[in-house]
Write a sequence for this structure.
């Protein structure tokens, strides 16, 4: 029991660690922006256990859609069940956190999309594939995705940023969790700029 307590204390961090990468890129014709839905990681740091990314068409109506990808490294569900779940406050929920900021990066709007069955190795795999060029780089991608829709006409700003993170969530009280959460690291938090132009919204890196 004492060893488990020490392990929990070592794992607790004020928030989930978000690891930003230069992983956003445009398609050749600039019609689609890939904000971490798949990317190459060449970092020497320890790889996060979970990740989130998205794609967005660059020119859309004000009611715009995003394809959001979420996953976890193989074995994370077992690691969570055996070692990490006992360290959390008992709410045991994860959620996609959509964040919209103005052009000075101040929060304008947010939403949590709860993932009741995360983690699940079969449903939410995060794949790591070593590149065959002799480097230490790894190609990372996800299987599971969901569509998210947002009406940019609902906010009184003309430009700003949008991004998604994977957050810990208070499923008991159905509200964001503000305490200490288990720190296991996550890829994500890649921002894309937006600007409203008439009845359209334009996204760019």
């Amino acid at each position: 029991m004492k060893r488990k307590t020490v392990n929990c204390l070592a794992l607790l961090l004020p928030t989930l660690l978000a690891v930003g990468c230069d992983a956003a890129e445009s398609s050749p014709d600039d019609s689609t922006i890939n904000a971490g839905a798949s990317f190459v990681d060449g970092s020497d740091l320890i790889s996060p256990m979970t990740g989130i990314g998205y794609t967005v068409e660059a020119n859309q109506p004000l009611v715009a859609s995003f394809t959001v990808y979420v996953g976890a490294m193989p074995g994370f569900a077992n690691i969570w069940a055996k070692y990490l779940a006992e360290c959390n406050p008992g709410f045991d929920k994860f959620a996609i956190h959509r964040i919209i900021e103005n052009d000075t990066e101040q929060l304008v709007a947010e939403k949590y999309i709860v993932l009741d069955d995360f983690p699940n190795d079969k449903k939410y795999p995060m794949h790591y594939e070593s590149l065959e060029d002799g480097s230490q780089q790894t190609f990372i991608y996800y299987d599971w995705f969901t569509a998210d829709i947002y009406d940019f006409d609902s906010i009184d700003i003309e430009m700003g940023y949008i991004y998604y993170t994977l957050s810990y969530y208070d499923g008991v009280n159905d509200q964001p969790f503000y305490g200490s959460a288990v720190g296991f690291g996550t890829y994500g938090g890649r921002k894309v700029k937006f600007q409203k132009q008439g009845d359209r919204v334009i996204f760019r890196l």
Confidence is low (pLDDT under 50) at residues 1-22.
